[in-house]
Amino acid sequence: MRKIWIVGSSHGVYLGSELEKIARESSDPTFVVRNFSHRGAKYEQLIWPKVTEVKESDVIIVIPFGNDLLRGYSVKRRGFWHLEKFFPQTNRKFVELYLYLYHDCSKYSCKILVISNFYRMFCCELHKHHGWLKYQYTRNRELQQELADLEPRVRVLDHRALVDNRAGKKRAKQNIHYYTSLQRDNVHFRRYDIIAKNVYAAAL
Known about the structure:
Rossmann fold, two-stranded antiparallel sheet, five-stranded parallel beta sheet, alpha/beta, 7 strands
């Protein structure tokens, strides 16, 4: 039996639960799920499976940098995350993080799916920050570029194509207001079953 190994933080926790449901309910299951995700983790706190335990036929799903994008100043009020001040992480730090990710992915011989950073904390009129969306888009584009040498074994999945189950999945790519309507607290999503189905299909 092949394994799906999940490396991430809170998104990985929720995604893993839905992938486990898919695996359990399948009449002919392809995978069993091993979830190493833990809430609040930054990249350097992520837990990876031992290289010796991962087979070439397995798949590793990585959700790497969501909690590394900013240097603090977010707070949760009444169930919603608010970005009080926009202090992006430095370029120097991300150069370091990309090297860590490249090195970690290089250790495995199996297929690896890296999910680009889910958009986060578009919260309210009081906390609108110029350049916040462009910054997140730029970091995701960098992620794609930094792992290009490892393709096709390592693929970066566009998060915007995973969160929507509409035909073509274009609306979440084109409309940030629609994208944020799919979230329940400005960070996490109302439905991870949709994301899980799209990720499962990519893992096959």
